[in-house]
Amino acid sequence: MNPKLILCRTLGSNAGSNWALAPRPARAARRTLTHLTFFLCCLGFCEQLRAYSLNIQLTRTNVQGCPYIKVNSHANPDGTTQFQVAVSFYEATLPSDSFTGKLELWDHEKLVASSAVQNARPRAPSKRFEADKKQIPLVFTFTVSKELLPASKFLIEHHDDFHTDTYWFYLREFVEATVAAGGELSWPDRETNGLAWPKPIGAAKIIHDRFLSASTNALGSVADIEAIKSAIVAAKPRRRVEEIRWLSPRLVIAKVRLMESGYYYVAQKKKDEWEILTYYLHWIS
Prior knowledge:
By secondary structure, this protein is α+β, with helices and mostly antiparallel strands. It has two domains: 55-174, Immunoglobulin-like, CATH 2.60.40; 189-284, Roll (Nuclear Transport Factor 2, Chain: A), CATH 3.10.450. The protein is built from three helices and 16 strands. The strands form five sheets. A five-stranded mixed β-sheet has the order 3-10-9-6-7, with no helix packed on it. It has a four-stranded antiparallel β-sheet with strand order 13-14-15-16.
């Protein structure tokens, strides 16, 4: 028998079952097809794992459910803001190099710069004083100018062999409240004769920037929100509150619409009641 041939069973018509010779390359082709199918299945499985990667936006509210991530900020005298982001490992076995930090600086819708942020504590735990720790929590520190605060964001990425989980936040969400409970933030004057434009007119940018940098997540209760809306409507009937943003738990700036004009309203909570501090005309058609 030719060693390059193998027996392959074929079905006969009336003679029952017959045996015929088939070339060895056919068997090799079937083996190759099996390997290829197995490889494609593995590739599809890996793609499914990647599909389960997390992409979570952090806010002042939901970050409380992530005890291993802490975000702090501090306003500097020169107008910049310094941030400190600490990442404590929720699993003691996670290596510190599996976490990276990235800062994206945006000017409105334009990406100005994107850069990795180095860990500020690149050291191993003390064998004597921190014997129970596998690693020291990572700390990322960076400073951003006030002009780039509204749209810029920071990303924390956790990498492993199959996927990358990303936790990110807008810097404006975690800006330290500029206003104390009693209120120390000064507001521009406004025109009193006719339209309530900010005075001088260049102050309009200050008000708009404060609105953009304020938190979009409520720092007060549902009752606070309703009280704010009631205070605005009571001051000027027929005005519709479109959006409320929070500068602190006791100070808000609201976007308000009236017919063919738009306003910014500033309200402050005093003695458990919300009052209108001031308002400005934002646009008119």
